[in-house]
Design a protein that fits this description.
Shape: globular
Order of helices and strands: HHHH
Radius of gyration: 17 Å
Structural class: mainly alpha
Helix content: 25-40%
Strand content: under 5%
Largest sheet: none
Number of helices: 4
Number of strands: 0
Low-confidence stretches: none
Distance between the termini: 32 Å
């Protein structure tokens, strides 16, 4: 995540409460970007980045929509500055997408057969004992039970 540049007015009230957590996630993101991926598959190198991106967006989503701990102004500020992914949050609001890991898992054009990713299949519909791992982000099942 690029360093958040504040406008002349500065960030909205409440920014100082969420900034330490966002800074911590930013440090994790830098570590994940610089981490060597020797011995891993090509796609496995970006999985930690997807997870941190998800975590950062989920943090903002939970603060605003679930706990109502931040103002709409601060929420919109985080969306505008790129702290949280607006499209991912929009999907989380829809029924059946509350646990979605990333947007690539629901894009049918990225798959061989024109369907969604295997991690979107509910675990009850899979074979017993089958380990599911998404190729795009490393998710092990965001489709439900």
């Amino acid at each position: 995540m690029p360093k958040v540049r504040h406008s002349k007015r500065g960030p909205p009230e409440g920014w100082d409460l969420i900034e330490p957590t966002l800074d911590e996630l930013d440090m994790k993101m830098r570590e994940a970007e610089q981490d060597p991926h020797d011995g891993k598959r090509k796609v496995e190198g970006v999985w930690p980045i997807f997870r941190i991106h998800h975590q950062r967006s989920r943090y903002i989503y939970d603060l605003y929509h679930k706990r109502k701990a931040i103002s709409k102004e601060l929420y919109n500020y985080c969306i505008e500055k790129g702290v949280a992914d607006e499209n991912l949050i929009a999907k989380w609001k829809k029924p059946g997408y509350g646990n979605l890991c990333c947007l690539r898992c629901i894009q049918t054009r990225d798959t061989t057969h024109g369907t969604t990713c295997i991690c979107r299949v509910p675990r009850s519909k899979l074979e017993e004992g089958r380990v599911v791992e998404c190729v795009h982000c490393g998710c092990r099942g965001c489709g439900g039970k």
